[in-house]
Amino acid sequence: MRLFRVFKKTLVVFYSWFYFMIFSVFFSHISPTTYVSIRAHLLNKKNFSLGKKCIIRSGCSLSGEKIVLKDNVRLGYNCHLMGNVEVGEYCMIAPNCVLVSSYHGSKLSNVPMLLQPGYKKGKVRIGRDVWVGANSVILGGVSIGAGSIVGAGSVVTKSFGENLIIAGNPGKVIGERN
User: Fold this and answer.
1) How does DSSP classify residue 68?
2) H/E run at residue 3
3) What pairing do the DSSP bridges indicate for beta strands 119-120 and 102-103?
């Protein structure tokens, strides 16, 4: 039993070292103080930028044209950022959130939607020090002002200013932060 524990510890240390070496070769533009879970999916690696001290949890998916996470951003488990997304400093994005700037085509009824060309709605901008609650969706062309809070389960379809509390489907202002 003791031999198994020693073997397990050795395997974990080797795996961590191996992951670090591979990660540092392919993601040299990411700060060493940033934590990216080994179960996160970073697709299209040339088109994203991660600031210092970011945390990207397991199950997160970052893909699309350009993803920018500034310093001290926290992405909860299973978040999906797709398209052209910028997240400001000190933001917290809770688990299962979706920030998307492009959509599937659906205008032609005689062509299956899967085969139609997609379209881009516009950049998603999240300001500094914003908290996005769990299971929220923020759609393309939306800007959330600095210091705002997006309530859990909200669907944000239009832009909002600074220090607001937004909730609902579609998202509406329900209060202000002092």
Assistant:
1) E
2) helix 2-26
3) antiparallel
